[in-house]
Amino acid sequence: MYSTCSEEAVKTQVSVALEHDDSVPISEMSKQLGLSEGAITFALPEVMLTQVEGKHAQAILERLPEWGDVTTIIHSCGSIFEFKAPFPSGKTAHGYYNLMGKEGQLHGHLALDLVMHIGFVSKPFRGKESHYIGFFTQQGDCMFKIYLGRDKQRQLISTQVAAFKALKEEFSK
User: In sequence order, what are the beta bridge partners of 110?
Assistant: First the structure.
């Protein structure tokens, strides 16, 4: 689906990398293994990943504004953009899902028709519990990720963890 390696070979490579360091970011694993973020993500063990069809992207995004502060991450040409604020509500117009952020929130136009796969990922990040929703193209490119927020003590917000798990369960059926 994402690389010239067989699915089993990718799973083996990912498993070996996780045994070495399970908190290495997927973007770094992608560089180390020469595979797309999608190939790495969808080869994670079941305990770390729930895969959902891309057709559910808008329905998932419509639920996020009620979660409070999250971190939206966009990788572009080696740069990383982060937005820490509530995920904005949106509406469909002119072929895009248009983010209608308030001042200080994310604005933009999402081509949700390019989202083929969604990953609900629960994987340590730099030694800390972490959960995010990643939106991927058919080629395995990550369009953007939405990480759960943290409080002032850098702990995950428990209501968001519960909402993440419920949303993952709802859309994985």
Answer: 97
Partnered with residue 144 across adjacent β-strands are: 135
CA distances from 121 to 31, 33, 103, 118 (A): 19, 19, 29, 9
3-state class (DSSP) for residue 44: coil
DSSP states along 75-134: EETTEEEEEEEEPPPEEEETTEEEEE--TTS-EEEE-GGG--EEEEEE--BTTB--EEEE
Distance CA 117, CA 38 (A): 8
Yes or no: say if 67 and 137 are a contact pair by the CB < 8 Å rule.
no
Q: Tell me the per-residue pLDDT of 115-133, one tens digit each, with 9 for 90 and over.
A: 999 999 999 987 889 999 9
Of the candidates 27, 40, 59, 51, the one whose C-alpha atom is nearest the C-alpha of residue 140 is 40
Whole-prediction pTM value?
0.92
> How far apart, in whole angstroms, are the C-alpha atoms of residue 146 and residue 116?
16
Of 143, 70, 142, the closest CA to residue 108 belongs to 143
CB count in 10 Å sphere of residue 89: 16
